[in-house]
């Protein structure tokens, strides 16, 4: 469920390329955002290049609000975040996309209308625009190459917002196919078999080294999320190797 009413409004200032308008509309739709405002746009939202890049997100371009100045674009908002690739010589609190979503999840932000402001491709936001925003968001990137494409910057922040809002956010999961994760009992069975065979072949050489070596080996297997099938295979491997060693002539 998306918490309606607290969706950030995306505000693009003096955007130059119609392709970026289209790409921004597309990523907004990807991440459940719908309200786009343009301040003094240099490109038109219904430019064929914008429409082409928006793919299915034409409605966002069609519903766009265009203003001639920044003040008008933010007049009905309670809180405005600037975005910038680099920190300015001014007193301003900087958030990352993550700390930004943590902030707006706080109870005092629940009823607020807030906007995220993105600058023009060539220059970014001027310090004058920055000064009109409450806080800034900087996406942490390689300091030697810190400027993202406009639509990609929107995408990173919209992604973070969506993850924080959506109960349907995909949990990291392993595709297990027809098998299931091994039980601890199965894992112990395999580890006991392995240890017994390593003891028999004198794998440890120096017995005082066994505890640490064995702990490392156990950690190697336990961090792998092994399936029942994986363990059967591994037991088969250990078994086959031990039998071949038994047969080896002295
Ligand atoms: N040449 C400009 C880059 C503008 S990129 C400059 O050096 O500032 C267009 C917009 O994308 C920026 O104004 C900002 O809103 C956003 N953006 C780009 N990289 C970003 C980053 N690392 N963090 C936050 N916003 C970024």
UniProtKB/TrEMBL annotation:
Mind listing the GO biological process terms from this record?
tRNA nucleoside ribose methylation
Return the GO cellular component terms, semicolon-separated. Answer: cytosol
Q: Does the keyword rRNA-binding apply?
A: no
Subunit comment:
Homodimer.
Tell me where on the tree of life, at the top rank, the source sits: Bacteria
Task: From the Swiss-Prot or TrEMBL record, state where the protein is found.
Answer: Cytoplasm
What EC number is given for this enzyme? 2.1.1.200
Entry function: Catalyzes the formation of 2'O-methylated cytidine (Cm32) or 2'O-methylated uridine (Um32) at position 32 in tRNA.
Keywords, A to Z, come to: Cytoplasm, Methyltransferase, S-adenosyl-L-methionine, Transferase, tRNA processing
Which first-to-last residue range defines the signal peptide? none
Tell me a Gene Ontology molecular-function term this record carries. RNA binding
Q: Which residues form the tRNA/rRNA methyltransferase SpoU type domain?
A: 9-159
Q: What name appears for this protein in its UniProt entry?
A: tRNA (cytidine/uridine-2'-O-)-methyltransferase TrmJ
**What is the reaction catalyzed?**
cytidine(32) in tRNA + S-adenosyl-L-methionine = 2'-O-methylcytidine(32) in tRNA + S-adenosyl-L-homocysteine + H(+); uridine(32) in tRNA + S-adenosyl-L-methionine = 2'-O-methyluridine(32) in tRNA + S-adenosyl-L-homocysteine + H(+)
Write out the similarity annotation.
Belongs to the class IV-like SAM-binding methyltransferase superfamily. RNA methyltransferase TrmH family.
Keyword Hydrolase appears in the UniProt entry: no
SUPFAM superfamilies per the UniProt record, alphabetical: alpha/beta knot (SSF75217)
Q: Which Pfam families does this UniProt record tie to the protein?
A: SpoU_methylase
């Amino acid at each position: 469920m998306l918490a309606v009413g607290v969706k950030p409004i995306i505000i693009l200032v003096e955007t130059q390329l119609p392709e970026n308008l289209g790409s921004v509309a597309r990523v907004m739709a990807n991440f459940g955002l719908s309200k786009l405002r343009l301040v003094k746009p240099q490109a038109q939202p219904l430019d064929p290049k914008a429409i082409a890049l928006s793919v299915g997100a034409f409605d966002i371009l069609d519903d766009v609000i265009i203003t001639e100045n920044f003040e008008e674009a933010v007049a009905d908002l309670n809180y405005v975040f600037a975005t910038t690739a680099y920190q300015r010589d001014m007193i301003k609190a900087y958030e990352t996309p993550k700390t930004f979503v943590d902030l707006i999840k706080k109870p005092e932000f629940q009823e607020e209308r807030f906007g995220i402001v993105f600058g023009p491709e060539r220059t970014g936001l001027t310090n004058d625009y920055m000064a009109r925003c409450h806080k800034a968001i900087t996406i942490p990137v390689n300091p030697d190459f810190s400027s993202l494409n406009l639509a990609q910057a929107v995408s990173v922040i919209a992604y973070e917002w969506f993850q924080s809002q959506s109960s349907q956010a995909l949990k990291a999961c392993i595709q297990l196919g027809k098998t299931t994760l091994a039980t601890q009992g199965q894992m112990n069975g395999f580890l006991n078999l392995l240890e017994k065979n390593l003891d028999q072949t004198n794998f440890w050489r120096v017995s005082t080294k066994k505890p640490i070596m064995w702990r490392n080996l156990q950690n190697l297997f336990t961090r792998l999320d092994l399936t029942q099938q994986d363990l059967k295979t591994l037991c088969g491997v250990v078994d086959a190797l031990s039998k071949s060693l038994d047969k080896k002539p002295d």
